[in-house]
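Quick note —
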Amino acid sequence: MVEALITVRPARLEDASEIAATHDTSWRDAYRGVIPGRELERMISRRGAEWWRSAIRRGSRLLVLDFDESVGGYVSYGRNRMPSLPYGGEIFELYLAPEFQGVGFGRKLFDAARRDLAGHGLRSTLVWALADNERAISFYRRLGGDVVRRAPERFGDELRDRVAFGFE
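Predicted structure written out below.
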C-alpha cells in the first residue's frame, strides 16, 4: 500500500523553487489565451525561486499544499489592499498545479488562509479573479463568494475585466 501525506503548512525557504515551478505551470494553465502571450511570459519570468525566497524571508503570509514533501499549490494573503471595499483580508493568489486541481485542495488552501486571517482579526475576505478565468470564477462562486466589484486590468496594450468576490 502506498501512502502520501497531504498537509497545508507555512512556506519554508527550501520550498521556493517548487513554488516557482507551481506558479509557472498553474499560470500557464490558467491564463494561456486569457492574458496576452508576451505579457504572460513577462509576469511568469518575474516570479522565479529568488522572488519567492525573498517573499518568505520578508514574512509574507504564504501557505503551501505539501504533497508528500512536494509543493502542489500555494496561497498568499494578507490585509485587503483596496480600502474602499469593506473587507479586512484579501487572498492575493491561490494556485494549484494542474494535477492537483478538482479534488478539494483549493478549498483546503482557501479555508486555511481564511482561518489565519480571522485569527488576526480579519474576518471578511476579498479575492480578485480575471473574468475570463472561468475555473476561478466558478471556484469562488462555489465557495459562496458574492461579486462585489468589477474593474479593468491592463496587460500591455490590452484590457481584461477582473471580478472581486467578497466573503463574510
